[in-house]
């Protein structure tokens, strides 16, 4: 709360509390959420490609699980953006996904997937995802920061760990 000093009718100087604007940091938060949504879309495309090239059934099963993690996380992010856009006064309107490309669009998966090089490309996707999600921990919007801290960062870490396990298959 910010105190605003005002003189009341009795002439005494008393601080008057002014509530902070709950949407003040929303533009920064929605920009970060949109970046994360694009990151999830890139990951989905990478896993879709990997699934077309996988020859080992165990690898295919793990890829489906990883893809599902990204799909669920993308839906959580999309839902968060849409919910905030409809409930917060002054929240941005328009498309949920807009803006520039995700920072790791250049990552591709080499064929066949069962090779170490291809798994390494997926691991790069996950490592970059970790970094993008960790950036959300410094957002000024407390609700969005908590969403990153309690939902997105732990989920992305789990996905990254699961991706690393592909090397053992």
List the helices and strands and how they pair.
Layout: E1 2-7, E2 13-18, H1 26-53, H2 57-87, H3 116-135, H4 142-164
Antiparallel strand pairs: 1-2
Helix pairs in contact: 1-2, 1-3, 2-4, 3-4
Architecture overview:
With 169 residues, this protein is mainly alpha-helical. The protein has one domain (24-168): Ferritin (Up-down Bundle), CATH 1.20.1260.10. It is built from four helices and two strands. The protein has helices at residues 26-53, 57-87, 116-135, 142-164, and strands at 2-7, 13-18. A two-stranded antiparallel ribbon has the order 1-2. The longest helix has 31 residues, at 57-87. Residues 1-7 and 99-107 have low confidence and may be disordered.
């Amino acid at each position: 709360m910010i105190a605003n000093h005002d003189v009341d009718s009795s002439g005494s100087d008393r601080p008057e509390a002014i509530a902070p604007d709950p949407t003040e940091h929303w533009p920064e938060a929605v920009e970060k959420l949109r970046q994360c949504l694009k990151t999830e879309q890139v990951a989905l495309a990478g896993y879709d490609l990997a699934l077309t090239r996988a020859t080992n059934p165990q690898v295919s099963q793990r890829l489906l699980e990883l893809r599902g993690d990204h799909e669920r996380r993308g839906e959580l992010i999309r839902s968060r953006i849409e919910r905030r856009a409809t409930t917060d006064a002054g929240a941005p309107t328009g498309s949920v996904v807009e803006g520039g490309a995700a920072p790791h669009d250049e990552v591709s998966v080499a064929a066949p997937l069962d090779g170490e090089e291809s798994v390494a490309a997926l691991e790069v996707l996950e490592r970059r995802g970790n970094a993008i999600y960790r950036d959300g921990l410094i957002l000024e919007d407390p609700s969005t920061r908590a969403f990153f801290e309690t939902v997105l960062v732990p989920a992305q870490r789990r996905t990254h760990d699961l991706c690393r396990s592909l090397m053992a298959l």
